[in-house]
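Notes from the 1:1 (GR / supervisor)

We went over the backlog. Supervisor wanted to see one worked example end to end before approving the batch request, so GR pasted a single chain during the call. The sequence is below; no edits were made to it. Supervisor asked that the structure be written out right there so they could see what the output format looks like.
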Amino acid sequence: MVRTYAVIMALIGMNVILMRAVKEGAGVDSTIISAIAWMIVLGLVGAVVGALAKTTVDESVQTKIKAELAAINSQPQSSKPSADTI
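Structure output shown during the call:
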């Protein structure tokens, strides 16, 4: 997830700079340097966002699983499903 967000943000940043340069008729040298710089910056931002998203999803899933396991373990022994019923 981290890599995906980083790549998407980096490519969006680079494409925006390249499209702006085509629209304004800017020079190739400065455009490429600017596009690479913004690609690096937005790639880092995307990596941070991706890491936060991954942590959030992992914690959410872990919390749900713990709650479900606690609910199963708190049931009386007679109401737990046996291996034959599953």
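Supervisor's comment: Helices lie at 2-24, 28-74.
Batch request approved.
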